[in-house]
Amino acid sequence: MDKSPDAFRTISEVAEDLDLPQHVLRFWETRFTHIKPLKRGGGRRYYRPDDVDLLKGIRHLLYGEGYTIKGVQRILKEEGVRFVQAVGRGEESVAAPRPEPRETVAEEDEDFVASGNSDPVIVASESLLSDDALHKLRAALDELVECDRVLRSLKTPTETLASE
Q: Does 55 score more than 90 pLDDT?
C-alpha cells in the first residue's frame, strides 16, 4: 500500500527512496542542522515531506553536482532551505561548485570523505565507471567512514593519546 504524498516517512523508507544507507542520513543530521525529523519514543525518526525534499536536494548537491558538505552548508546559508528543497524536487538548478582551496579540503578530510567526493580516484574515475559501480564505490566509502567513526568512539583516552 502506497502512502499519501503528505504522509510522514520512516528513515528506512527515506533511505530506500534516496538509495542511501540509513547511517548516511543520520550522519547528515550532524552536519546539516536544518535536517530535523520528528522523533518519537525510542528515538524513531519520522520525516515530513519537506524533510524528504531537503534530503533529496542535499543528495543531489553532494552526489549529482559534486559539492562538498561545506559547500552545501554554504548554499543552505546563502540560498536557504526552500531553495535546496526546490533543488530536491527538480524545480531549481545550481551552478557548478566553485573550486575550494586545497588547504580547506585538507582541513576537512572527514567531512569531505563522507560526502563521497574526496578520494581523487573516485573523482577522476567518475567518467570511467558506470553509475551503478560509482554508487557502489561511494556506498563502500560511506561504510568505511562510519566504521572509522565507530572505532574512534571506542578508543579510550590513553589509546587516543598513544596513537597521536
A: yes
Cα–Cα distances in Å, from 30 out to 26, 114, 135?
Answer: 7, 12, 22
Q: What is the pLDDT of residue 159?
A: 55
Report the largest interatomic distance among the alpha carbons of the chain, rounded to a whole angstrom.
54
Q: CA 106: distance to chain centroid?
A: 19
Give pLDDT, residue 143: 78
Q: Alpha-carbon distance 60 to 63, whole Å?
A: 5
Place of cell 552526489: 63
Which residue type occupies 55?
L
All 3 cell numbers of residue 105? 579540503
The 3-state DSSP class for residue 87 equals helix
pLDDT over 90 at 140, yes or no: no
Helices assigned H by DSSP within the chain: 11-18, 22-31, 49-59, 69-79, 81-89, 102-107, 109-114, 120-125, 131-154, 157-163
77-104 pLDDT tens trace? 999 999 999 988 888 777 656 555 433 4
